[in-house]
Amino acid sequence: MPNKRTIIVTGGAGFIGSHVIRRFVTRYPHYKIINLDALTYAGNLENLRDIENAPNYFFERANILHTEEIQGVFAKYDPDSIIHLAAESHVDRSILSPLDFVYTNIIGTVNLLNVAKHEWLDNLSSKRFYHVSTDEVYGALGETGYFTEKTSYAPNSPYSASKASSDHFVRAYGETYDLPVVITNCSNNYGPNQFPEKLIPLFINNIITKRPLPVYGDGLYTRDWLYVKDHAAAIDHIFHEGKNRETYNIGGNNEWKNIELVKLLCRLMDDKLGNTPGTSEKLITYVKDRPGHDRRYAIDASKVEQELGWKPSISFEEGLAQTVDWYLQNGEWLKNVTTGAYQQYYKGQYSSE
Ligand code: NAD
Ligand code: DAU
Question: Which residue among 96, 150, 185, 205 is buried most deeply as judged by most CB within 10 Å?
């Protein structure tokens, strides 16, 4: 791989994208990093305030559904790589509005693939189209077993079906047009800057504001949690050393049943807020289950560890404590993203709470 790169990161103003951008901008000052983001409800330039003036960082407000906007960014920067994170990312919203997920996640991805194919066709060497995907494409596990790169796709939500479809298109562009693609499928991320619609930041915000903690179903659903900076490190490794047309699973080797995680979070929050032990647990409320709720996810990440030497570096207890500290120290950020449209979404999603 050449020493200098010009990389478009789509969805760079979102949760994971902002950590990827920060890592690449600071570690590779000789690269140009272009953040291409439409700034939907989930995109927030506040996430990048600390690096926005770096000489190798550029922001372009553009929508992956609008071909001419992507072409304009290509014409301006002549990128040799794309790290594609832009997506609709929340399962509950996909149940409310599946078509939004079809447009952004499927059509948006194919649009991006088409522009890259067209612009790079004459010289595909040292190009890279890196597609960031999810373990949810594999469906649900029972009590045992792990998702490997060979597990068949069996998506159960409109979100995971849209991501599965986008993965298939990326793969097909590799096979049909020789586009140098790589795909990664990652487990649940947590950490600073995550929008408070996802379990951990939603519950942190509700503990701060003393609202009920809505646990879906019996609370015994299991997720494999990975600290977002470890995911960004994995993306860095795979971007530089991963093989074209390969898929790599990324996970935390860190399974938690939701209710156990929520109780751990409650204890941590009580400790940090100086509450009497047990205060936050009283907010736990079992609510109607999510339709099509996948029982368990667990990733076998041995391929990326054995082939590329990546593994998670931060323990869950340490990562969760850092996450809680970040939200407590960034009350303004939290307030700004939980006004207006957020309140409307919250009411619709949790009205039976
Ligand atoms: P996010 O919702 O926090 O951010 C998505 C970003 O994409 C936002 O900045 C938004 O403005 C932008 N975006 C949305 N639609 C766009 C469009 N049409 N054009 C341009 N930009 C658009 O998402 P996230 O949680 O950071 O996830 C990033 C990626 O990683 C997604 O592809 C998601 O499927 C995948 N992923 C997420 C997780 C997780 O736990 N969050 C785990 C595995 C994989
Ligand atoms: O596995 C990777 C995926 O992880 C990513 O691809 C998705 O973008 C990301 O949103 C995440 O999906 P989940 O559906 O697993 O995450 P979420 O935080 O929405 O839910 C985690 C678990 O907590 C899940 O079992 C549902 C449950 N839950 C969630 C919410 C929001 C609740 O019990 N109550 C809630 O209010």
Answer: 185
